[in-house]
Design a protein that fits this description.
Number of domains: 2
Radius of gyration: 22 Å
Number of helices: 4
Structural class: mainly alpha
Strand content: under 5%
Largest sheet: none
Distance between the termini: 52 Å
Length: 100
Amino acid sequence: MYVHGRTLREVEKSAVSAIRLMAGDDEPVDVVVVPVAPQITAVNEAREAHEAAVAEVVRYLKAQRVTWADTAAIAGVTQRRARELLACVPEPVDTADAPQ
Protein backbone atom coordinates (compact mmCIF):
# COMPACT_ATOMS: atom_id res chain seq x y z
CA MET A 1 0.00 0.00 0.00
CA TYR A 2 1.29 3.45 -0.83
CA VAL A 3 0.27 6.52 1.15
CA HIS A 4 1.36 10.12 1.05
CA GLY A 5 1.66 13.23 3.14
CA ARG A 6 3.94 16.18 3.77
CA THR A 7 4.29 15.32 7.46
CA LEU A 8 4.38 12.05 9.41
CA ARG A 9 0.96 12.94 10.82
CA GLU A 10 -0.47 13.33 7.30
CA VAL A 11 1.09 10.02 6.26
CA GLU A 12 -0.53 8.36 9.27
CA LYS A 13 -3.94 9.82 8.38
CA SER A 14 -3.53 8.71 4.77
CA ALA A 15 -2.65 5.17 5.88
CA VAL A 16 -5.65 4.97 8.21
CA SER A 17 -7.94 6.15 5.41
CA ALA A 18 -6.49 3.61 2.98
CA ILE A 19 -6.83 0.74 5.48
CA ARG A 20 -10.43 1.69 6.26
CA LEU A 21 -11.21 1.90 2.55
CA MET A 22 -9.71 -1.54 1.92
CA ALA A 23 -11.46 -3.06 4.97
CA GLY A 24 -14.77 -1.45 4.13
CA ASP A 25 -15.52 -0.29 7.66
CA ASP A 26 -14.79 2.48 10.14
CA GLU A 27 -13.28 0.32 12.88
CA PRO A 28 -10.43 1.98 14.82
CA VAL A 29 -7.05 1.36 13.20
CA ASP A 30 -3.67 1.66 14.89
CA VAL A 31 -0.95 2.78 12.51
CA VAL A 32 2.73 3.29 13.25
CA VAL A 33 4.70 5.26 10.66
CA VAL A 34 8.36 4.24 10.50
CA PRO A 35 10.49 6.38 8.20
CA VAL A 36 13.19 4.35 6.48
CA ALA A 37 16.40 5.73 4.98
CA PRO A 38 20.09 4.81 5.32
CA GLN A 39 20.76 8.08 7.15
CA ILE A 40 18.02 7.38 9.69
CA THR A 41 19.38 3.88 10.25
CA ALA A 42 22.89 5.28 10.77
CA VAL A 43 21.64 7.78 13.37
CA ASN A 44 19.67 5.09 15.21
CA GLU A 45 22.69 2.77 15.26
CA ALA A 46 24.89 5.61 16.56
CA ARG A 47 22.37 6.35 19.33
CA GLU A 48 22.31 2.69 20.35
CA ALA A 49 26.12 2.49 20.36
CA HIS A 50 26.32 5.67 22.46
CA GLU A 51 23.77 4.34 24.93
CA ALA A 52 25.70 1.07 25.25
CA ALA A 53 28.98 2.91 25.78
CA VAL A 54 27.48 5.15 28.48
CA ALA A 55 25.97 2.11 30.20
CA GLU A 56 29.37 0.40 30.17
CA VAL A 57 31.02 3.49 31.69
CA VAL A 58 28.38 3.61 34.42
CA ARG A 59 28.87 -0.10 35.17
CA TYR A 60 32.65 0.34 35.31
CA LEU A 61 32.52 3.42 37.55
CA LYS A 62 30.04 1.87 39.98
CA ALA A 63 32.22 -1.26 40.16
CA GLN A 64 35.01 1.11 41.24
CA ARG A 65 32.68 2.50 43.94
CA VAL A 66 32.49 5.97 42.41
CA THR A 67 29.62 8.05 43.82
CA TRP A 68 26.41 8.40 41.84
CA ALA A 69 27.00 12.14 41.44
CA ASP A 70 30.49 11.63 40.02
CA THR A 71 29.39 8.70 37.87
CA ALA A 72 26.61 10.77 36.35
CA ALA A 73 28.91 13.74 35.76
CA ILE A 74 31.57 11.60 34.09
CA ALA A 75 29.02 9.75 31.95
CA GLY A 76 27.23 12.97 31.01
CA VAL A 77 23.82 11.84 32.24
CA THR A 78 21.60 12.52 35.23
CA GLN A 79 21.96 10.37 38.32
CA ARG A 80 18.54 8.93 37.60
CA ARG A 81 19.59 7.95 34.08
CA ALA A 82 22.83 6.45 35.39
CA ARG A 83 20.83 4.29 37.79
CA GLU A 84 18.48 3.25 34.97
CA LEU A 85 21.42 2.31 32.76
CA LEU A 86 23.03 0.28 35.51
CA ALA A 87 19.77 -1.61 36.04
CA CYS A 88 19.70 -2.47 32.31
CA VAL A 89 23.30 -3.67 31.97
CA PRO A 90 23.73 -7.39 32.64
CA GLU A 91 26.70 -8.31 34.79
CA PRO A 92 29.54 -9.97 32.89
CA VAL A 93 29.46 -13.75 33.06
CA ASP A 94 32.62 -15.42 34.33
CA THR A 95 33.23 -18.36 32.02
CA ALA A 96 36.58 -19.35 33.55
CA ASP A 97 35.02 -22.22 35.53
CA ALA A 98 32.60 -23.29 32.81
CA PRO A 99 33.04 -26.81 31.39
CA GLN A 100 34.49 -26.90 27.91
